[in-house]
UniProtKB/TrEMBL annotation:
The lineage of its organism: Bacteria, Pseudomonadati, Pseudomonadota, Gammaproteobacteria, Moraxellales. GO terms for molecular function: transmembrane transporter activity. SUPFAM superfamilies: Multidrug resistance efflux transporter EmrE (SSF103481). This is Multidrug transporter EmrE-like cation transporter. Gene3D superfamilies: 1.10.3730.20. It comes from the Bacteria. It comes from Agitococcus lubricus.
């Protein structure tokens, strides 16, 4: 399971990094940001295919999606100066609870 967990971490990293770069591209309109974002999404797709060799689709999908959404929200608030409301914080916490619950039930 250690290799599967590494592939989950890589999938999350490449997806969140790609989203971050795509958001920066929308602000700065530098083509190299978009190119790196697409490369990052491609790497996320490759590592995702490896994740599915180690975990069931339901588990892998819920853990990666929840983690990606949570990290993307945190990065958007901290580094991209996006507005973060109490309701967003509440629902992000629910996502974290869901990810922990799914992971604990595995």
């Amino acid at each position: 399971m250690a290799a599967g967990s590494i592939f989950i971490a890589l999938t999350v990293f490449f997806n969140v990094f790609g989203t971050f770069l795509a958001r920066l591209h929308s602000q700065q309109e530098k083509i190299w940001l978009l190119a790196f974002a697409l490369a990052s999404y491609t790497a996320a797709f490759v590592t995702w295919s490896k994740v599915l060799k180690y975990f069931d689709m339901g588990f892998a999908s819920s853990v990666t999606t929840g983690t990606i959404l949570t990290l993307s929200n945190v990065i958007a608030f901290v580094w991209l100066n996006e507005v973060y409301s109490v309701s967003k914080l509440f629902f992000t916490c629910l996502i974290v609870v869901g990810v922990v619950g799914v992971h604990a039930s595995q």
